[in-house]
Amino acid sequence: MDRLEDYIRNNREDLDRYSPPDNVWKAIRKSLHHKRRDVIMWFSAAAMIIVILTTAAMFYVFNRREDYTLSGKEADILLMKSNPELIESEIYYNNLIHDLYSEATPLLTGNPDVEKELLIDMAQIDSICTDIKKDLKDNVANQEVVEALINNYRIKIQILEDLLNTLKQDETGNDNKLNHAL
Fold first, then answer.
1. 31-69 burial: b if 16+ Cβ within 10 Å, else e
2. Angle at 87 between CA 125 and CA 119, to 5 degrees
3. Which of 22, 90, 157, 176 is most buried by its number of CB atoms within 10 A?
4. Number of alpha carbons in the 13 Å side-chain half-sphere of residue 110
């Protein structure tokens, strides 16, 4: 390299005197620009292909995941469709529980502590029912799981009936005390 540099330094004036014609510089620029355009075109095409394939893969994965994962309500509906007896018993027990709770509501207004305790107990039983329904999704044909779910509904009904009887007795007991005091 040193010899080349020395030669250029020594002969600088002679070398600068010659310059290529303008058409040579234009051809050089054109060939450089054309190569750059080809590279940019290939990179653009590759980037578009990557984006399209990634998007297609993401749509495929998300759609497949939605097929396999059902929401809680959809799973319950599917579960109920597969077991019509469960639908009937679910409707029957929920209506019975609703009627008993509606009957107890006026009596509970005077006893907020009892109402709070009842709501806590019902929430615990509902949590157990949710767990049983998860087991039922795994074992649709398992009669023991269905019986456990029905048993939990019966427990809720028993709690509400006992509470109602106690509240009615307390109410009639208070009325009798008032009648005796007069």
1. eeeeeeeeeeeeeeeeeeeeeeeeeeeeeeeeeeeeeee
2. 20
3. 90
4. 8
CA distance 120 to 41: 68
Whether the model pTM is above 0.70: no
Q: What is the DSSP string of the chain?
A: -HHHHHHHHHTHHHHHT----HHHHHHHHHHHHHHHHHHHHHHHHHHHHHHHHHHHHHHHHHHHHHHH---HHHHHHHHHHH-HHHHHHHHHHHHHHHHHHHHHHHHHTT-HHHHHHHHHHHHHHHHHHHHHHHHHHH-TT-HHHHHHHHHHHHHHHHHHHHHHHHHHHHHHHHHHHHHHH-
Distance CA 52, CA 141 (A): 45
Burial of 149 (0-12, 13-18, 19+ CB in 10 A): buried
Query: What are the residue ranges spanned by the domains of the chain?
Result: 12-68, 72-181
pLDDT digits 0-9 by tens, 1-57: 688 888 888 888 877 777 778 888 888 877 777 777 788 888 999 999 999 999 888
Query: What is the C-alpha end-to-end distance of the chain, expressed in Å?
Result: 127
* Nearest-angstrom CA–CA distance, 17 and 68: 78
